[in-house]
Write a structure and sequence with these properties.
5 helices; 4-stranded antiparallel sheet; 9 strands; 5-stranded mixed sheet; alpha+beta; Immunoglobulin-like; signal
């Protein structure tokens, strides 16, 4: 009887201690006030865009970047759970040393949205801003836009967190018009 109890206790302990262990880095495009992820994403996502909300005659690539920024408001981001509160440094030092970038092609921008609590950090960036920068870099910003010609968008997340090794993650976004 005692051996069954010990076995059951070990099973429950292992399940709750290890079974709920999640990856500290999570792709996420929206968060609540507690910094919980409300819009989880994967390494390979399809994003459907509402063409009826894009009312532009003869649109170019810059116009599309503006649509993503101001109308669709696509914000690739992530949530990171810290190993210990503020990773063992003070909150001011943590916030001053923390930095996250989003890279697409040759364009790399510091992520605009960063929110912190002692146990987690979330960061996001406006996809339209990053794409517009890359379109300018490629010299296509004023050329006629076709979504099909854009192809998959390969993003690199580069994150430096106090008390951790640098993080580098890749994610691909496929944009399509809603049917």
């Amino acid at each position: 009887m005692i051996s069954r109890f010990v076995s059951l206790f070990c099973f429950v302990f292992c399940f709750f201690c290890h079974g709920t262990n999640t990856n500290p880095f999570q792709f996420c495009d929206n968060f609540n006030d507690r910094l919980d992820c409300t819009e989880p994403k994967t390494e390979n996502d399809l994003v459907l865009l509402d063409r009826s909300k894009w009312k532009k005659d003869n649109p170019n690539y810059e116009d599309f970047g503006n649509y993503l920024y101001f109308t669709a408001r696509e914000t690739p981001g992530f949530r990171l759970v810290l190993s210990k509160p503020w990773n063992g440094v003070g909150s001011d030092a943590f916030k001053n040393q923390y930095i996250a970038y989003l890279q697409y092609g040759n364009s790399k921008e510091r992520m605009e949205g960063n929110q912190f609590n002692p146990n987690a950090v979330v960061s996001f960036h406006y996809l339209g801003a990053l794409l517009k920068e890359e379109f300018r870099h490629l010299g296509i910003d004023s050329k006629p836009f076709q979504l099909e010609a854009l192809g998959p968008i390969s993003l690199n997340y580069l994150v430096n967190v106090p008390g951790m090794e640098p993080i580098s993650k890749q994610r691909t976004i496929h944009l399509q018009w809603k049917p």
